[in-house]
Description:
Shape: elongated
Helix content: 40-55%
Strand content: under 5%
Radius of gyration: 16 Å
Structural class: mainly alpha
Number of helices: 2
Order of helices and strands: HH
Amino acid sequence: MQEEVNPQPPDPQAGITAAMAGLDGLDGVPLAEHVERFDAVHTELTAALSTIDKV
């Protein structure tokens, strides 16, 4: 019989760090592409932060 192991919740800090990396080099990206980058980072941050309270 196998013991059930409760998986550890994801580390929100890792997700936050990965999301913020999406802003790296933003100053070299055309202004028209900034909104797309910000939207992607926002989505990733929302996902990472939602793991804290399991929202």
